[in-house]
Specification:
Structural class: alpha/beta
CATH superfamily: Vaccinia Virus protein VP39
Number of domains: 1
Number of strands: 10
Strand content: 15-25%
Bound molecules: S-adenosylmethionine
CATH architecture: 3-Layer(aba) Sandwich
Radius of gyration: 19 Å
Number of helices: 10
Order of helices and strands: HHHEHEHEEHEHHEEHHEEE
CATH class: Alpha Beta
Length: 288
């Protein structure tokens, strides 16, 4: 059964055609991306849901002797700071490496993570794209939290990550299904990256093709979109720009209106809050 009504499917088709006709869609620049990401996350309950699940089901079950964690596309560190806090409570020693090509986010990562540093903890960041480095040591846990979409070859990235794990180490990929809120980002990314975007189905297909055992869990989440519609505020504009992964004010008016109408059509009223659902999947795969 289709997730969308026929009217919504028509709107998606119309947005897709308008996006295809644009000469170019500029990605958000580094500092504006970092700002939009944090405003978006501050208005969503997704991070809290993911962190609670990962603490209980992944970090709390790691060996106390585990000591090496890699976060690919770590952004500003707001997420990893919590993972490091859980790891510190469990492990004797933690080496935490971030990989982040956005130099502004990478600098923020070190600042954010410094709240958790001690003799017991060593934090560093590589300001690079994933795939550009050779690791001297292997990892107990490798995280791709909402970052795999941005990589050029995601199949290679998953294989490289599995290779970089210690035996018994675990790869965790957090990725959205191609649904609801993510539908718009998908249309934009396809055009920006000139290749199909990746969503949960692609991760599943990759693990299946490799014959790997994996688990998956869906975490439901909602974005508070009160500021996104009508007379929007700066925060509202940041959220919409993050949803569309480009400056919405630079899109043609007709396309902007279609996006707004589509978002409104998938929104749900919860009391006084207009919510946009944006579920997310957690995939985990242990290295034998
Ligand atoms: C949606 S953010 C997620 C940040 C963080 N993991 C979090 O959950 O808050 C995606 C991150 O992936 C980074 N990224 C983009 N291309 C990348 C690449 N080729 N290799 C590694 N990270 C990349 C972006 O700069 C961005 O910080």
């Amino acid at each position: 059964m289709s997730l969308y009504t026929s009217h919504q499917s028509k709107m998606i088709g119309s947005i897709d055609r308008a996006v295809t006709d644009l000469a170019q869609i500029q990605p958000l620049n580094n500092s504006y991306y970092a700002q939009c990401l944090e405003i978006f996350e501050a208005n969503s309950d997704q991070r809290v849901g993911l962190l609670g699940w990962l603490e209980a089901n992944v970090v709390a079950k790691m060996s106390q002797d585990a000591n090496a964690i890699l976060s690919v596309g770590c952004g500003t560190g707001a997420f990893d700071e919590c993972i490091l806090r859980y790891a510190r409570a469990r492990m004797n020693q933690v080496t935490y490496l971030g990989i982040e090509p956005n130099e502004i986010s990478a600098a923020d990562f070190l600042k954010t993570m410094s709240t958790q540093t001690s003799d017991q903890v060593d934090v560093s960041v590589l300001v690079q794209k994933f795939g550009e480095q050779v690791f001297e040591n292997k990892f107990d846990l490798i995280l791709f939290v909402q970052s795999i979409y941005y990589l050029e070859d995601r199949n290679d990235a998953i294989d490289a990550a599995l290779h970089a794990l210690k035996p018994g180490g675990e790869l965790v990929i957090v990725i959205a299904p191609d649904e609801e809120l993510n539908t718009i980002a998908n249309l934009m990314w396809q055009r920006q990256m000139e290749q199909k975007s990746w969503f949960s189905d692609n991760v599943r297909a990759h693990f299946d093709a490799r014959g790997l055992d994996y688990g998956e869990t869906r975490v439901s989440a909602n974005l508070n979109a009160n500021e996104c519609f009508g007379e929007s505020t700066e925060a509202g504009r940041n959220i919409v720009d993050f949803i569309v992964q480009t400056r919405a004010d630079q899109l043609p008016t007709g396309l902007r209106n279609d996006i707004s109408e589509f978002l409104m059509s998938i929104s749900e009223e919860q009391g006084t809050t207009t919510c946009l659902p944006h579920p997310v999947d957690i995939f985990r795969c242990k290295k034998p």
